[in-house]
């Protein structure tokens, strides 16, 4: 059963409150009655229940005497008319507030069912099933002035997350939501940009309830000479020196003849957890999944979900009565989390028929493992596993990086290898791989949270060619990138992908663009590692950060 979160009370229809304003002088509605109001109410109450009791007695006698009910006397007809009249009076007098309060309660209960990811879809289903109820839940506001709509949002009459659907204009919806937020919080959003962004492009795709967008500068570094091709790499960051340092690394790689890269593995993973009545039953399913003769059956079920998803394998782990199954599959040029999840659901449905005592606990049991540092990703890989290397010539080390081979080799051993081991690092045997990964991820529309495992990297350095030159490599087992879907479809991020030549899906070879992007990420990390380690070795780190990453300017005043 899904756990759904109740929307904020500020965004839900507010119950109708009695007006505190004094009644206007002059005639009142009750003045039209020939008798005092309390007496009239008592009269109709008495009449209603009296005639109802009288009719029940008459109908009971007719049933006992086998007299047809549709045959009525004059007194019975008068009683029926009195019953109808008194019911209409009581409904009109007491029913209005009841109906309004019922509608308000129905509105709140309806919004309780709206999931934060499925709110708009649920809204459409409500309107399709019962437009009249939907109209009560969200009043039609398409013809109202913006100021009136803002007041309705502030009062909670209109849920803020429903503005796009109700108005049919995303830009207008964001403007109204933003103004309502400022009035509710009494805080200004002046420094947060509003105009100049296509909010329709993120609807039901990238972000809910937007009120603006954050500006992150994009710098370029390059060219990166990788596998005999040159690439200009966009990097979105607010940390000074990152782009400049990476660019220096590119310069050294270019001067040394370029770097080479290889994709070792390519497979996104998802690992559901299921529970059995006993550990032996869990082991029985594990043996079934481990049996090579059953793989094709599983693959046929899994591959139904997509034209690109192809099951590669299933890795199982037992914890008591619980079984964790780590499915791995190719996903074309998409990062592939949704794709692999759909395939896993197909396999679970098949296994449920074969193992009716299997209880599906979660589609993700953290054995995947997504957006968390995990040894399984470090050892087995997730997404694209890449290695990138280059031999930096002695003269380049002296001229561009102002250091020596022996100095860098010793520093890498003591810092990246021994130092990280002392710290108990998991996949963190590098200087600053996450700086480069994050900058490229943000610029190209990747999931920034997947920087956690995508930055797993071990940097190796050793002297070659009789100790004159430096061989440096980075091995990154879990680079999770895609060139279609998610944030890659936004205009700015799409432009950065186009700059790299990996925009969209590859028409020649599915998955080629995403694999190339992973190689570029690895090559950029290689350059960043080389430059930063050289800066530390030559004592330039603090000096460069004090020069490029320390500002006393109040940027907020410039922006306003």
TrEMBL record:
It is found in: Endoplasmic reticulum membrane. It catalyses: (R)-mevalonate + 2 NADP(+) + CoA = (3S)-3-hydroxy-3-methylglutaryl-CoA + 2 NADPH + 2 H(+). The chain crosses the membrane at residues 37-56, 77-96. Residues 1-27 are annotated as: Disordered. Pathway: Metabolic intermediate biosynthesis; (R)-mevalonate biosynthesis; (R)-mevalonate from acetyl-CoA: step 3/3. Keywords: Endoplasmic reticulum, Glycoprotein, Isoprene biosynthesis, Membrane, NADP, Oxidoreductase, Transmembrane, Transmembrane helix. It is a multi-pass membrane protein. One of its GO terms (cellular component) is peroxisomal membrane. It holds the Pfam family HMG-CoA_red. Its main location: endoplasmic reticulum. One of its GO terms (biological process) is coenzyme A metabolic process. GO terms for molecular function: hydroxymethylglutaryl-CoA reductase (NADPH) activity. InterPro entries: HMG_CoA_Rdtase, HMG_CoA_Rdtase_cat_sf, HMG_CoA_Rdtase_CS, HMG_CoA_Rdtase_eu_arc, HMG_CoA_Rdtase_N, HMG_CoA_Rdtase_NAD(P)-bd_sf, HMG_CoA_Rdtase_sub-bd_dom_sf. Its EC number is 1.1.1.34. It comes from the Eukaryota. PANTHER family: 3-HYDROXY-3-METHYLGLUTARYL-COENZYME A REDUCTASE. Belongs to the HMG-CoA reductase family. This is 3-hydroxy-3-methylglutaryl coenzyme A reductase.
